[in-house]
Amino acid sequence: MKKLVFLSILSVIMIFGPSTDSRAEVGVTKNEIVIGSHVDLSGPIASWGIYMKTGMELKAREINEAGGIYGRKIRLVIEDNGYDPKKAIMVTNKMINRDKVFCFLCILGAPTSLATKQIISMAKIPQMYPASGTTKSFLPYDRYSFGGDTPYYDQARAVVKFFVEHKKYTKIGLMYQDDEFGELVKKGVEDQLATANLKLLGAESYKRGATEFSSQITKLRKVDPQAVVLGTVMRETVGALKEAKEIGWKVDMGGMVTSQSKFVPELCEKAGFSADGYYCAALTPYIYPDSPLKSVRGVWERHVNWFGKEPDMGVTVGYRALLFFEEAAKRAGRDLTREKLIDALETFKEVPDPVFGGAPVTYTPTDHQGGSTVCIEQIKGGRFVKVSDFIDFRK
User: Which of 9, 14, 115, 340 lies 20 to 30 Å from 216 when distance is taken between CA atoms?
Assistant: First the structure.
């Protein structure tokens, strides 16, 4: 009998390891912290996902080369979600059950992040700084889920505010993606217009993945707006600009952060026209090698040296996500746990972005929104140029 008990205890130790290890937090060892993420690396917004991946990798390398966080190196597990909710669920379960990640960071896409949000939260795993402006990442309140940058709703309000107050326009139209992203943009446009006693002149939607926008642009032209807000991602932005150009319609257009990419002017140029004049919301000024900020120039140079290509704005998103994680992990202390990370995040009050000069982040025990400020940039001579100050609708 004593021998049987001894063998049972021995088998438990062999399966689960020594008792001191079994009490350790999942994804945290003496030497590393395992962080998971899923982004689009092969689908319609891969041009964002690929650069978010290198942005996270760049910041992780900087952290690791500096000795890690309390001696622990960052190990990233980044999977391809293909901008497909079903695939996002599959890779999320893989990272939870096989990779044993400590937390999730910088999940890309509104439909893909929302598809996996409940799975992650039910497992009581922190998920922070999604690469999506959906308000459902932080509303309703969920202890394990944190927002990131300024939501699409406020981005849309900022674009409308610029057109109405700076350009003195009173007739605004909208083209938007028929999903969570587009609906948030539409509500932001309508609510901001209402503050000026104006109504949306016309709105046309399109299905996610669409490549033809002639119908939407033609219908919008008929109502004769002075400006059109675009609830579009990169490819769709170019499509809308192209259609307007082909029918000879000269109208101001302005979009969300999702269109603040070098690929917008580049793709327009390949299509035979200039994107100059296009406006978009911005969380940070565009990353250029001649930036007035030394820190931005440094990131640009390291990205070129380490990855062999110039960065795009996705790099700033991935980099900033890990930057704010690093701050939270340091505040949590040497004995890092998921619950302590959450407690540390909830102490964030206007935590600055010391690298890109972007929106500061605030979290509290009852509010997990994150960023709340946005400025406007315009394409001039093929480059994004800041044309407004940062505004904050929460103040």
Answer: 115
State which amino acid sits at residue 200: L
For residues 145 and 77, what is the distance between their CA atoms, to the nearest angstrom?
19
What beta strand segments (E) does the chain contain? 32-39, 73-80, 103-105, 127-128, 172-177, 202-206, 227-231, 252-255, 279-282, 362-364, 367-370, 373-380, 383-386, 391-392
Distance of alpha carbon 240 from alpha carbon 237, whole angstroms: 5
pLDDT class of 242 with cuts at 50, 70, 90: very high
49 touches 90 (CB < 8 A): no
Amino acid at 370: G
% of the chain exceeding 70 in pLDDT: 94
Distance of alpha carbon 17 from alpha carbon 14, whole angstroms: 5
With cut-offs at 50, 70 and 90, classify the pLDDT of residue 21.
very low
CB-neighbour burial class of residue 258 (10 A; exposed 0-12, middle 13-18, buried 19+): buried
Tokens of 297: 């120039």
Confidence of residue 359 (pLDDT cuts 50, 70, 90): confident
Q: Predicted confidence band at 384 (pLDDT cuts at 50, 70, 90)? A: very high
Distance CA 138, CA 185 (A): 17
Tokens of 385: 């140029």
Read off the pLDDT of residues 130-176 as tens digits, 9 standing for 90 and up: 999 999 999 999 999 999 999 999 999 999 999 999 999 999 999 99
Q: CA 117 to CA 136: how far, in whole Å?
A: 9
Reported as type and span, the H/E element at residue 301 is helix 294-307
CA atoms within 13 A on the CB side of 52: 28
The strand ranges marked E within 5-72 are: 32-39
| Site of tokens 């587009």 | 182
- The answer, yes or no, to whether residue 19 has pLDDT greater than 50, is no
Euclidean distance between CA atoms 15 and 335, whole angstroms: 24
**Please, what are the domains in the chain?**
11-150+293-364 (3.40.50.2300), 152-282+377-392 (3.40.50.2300)
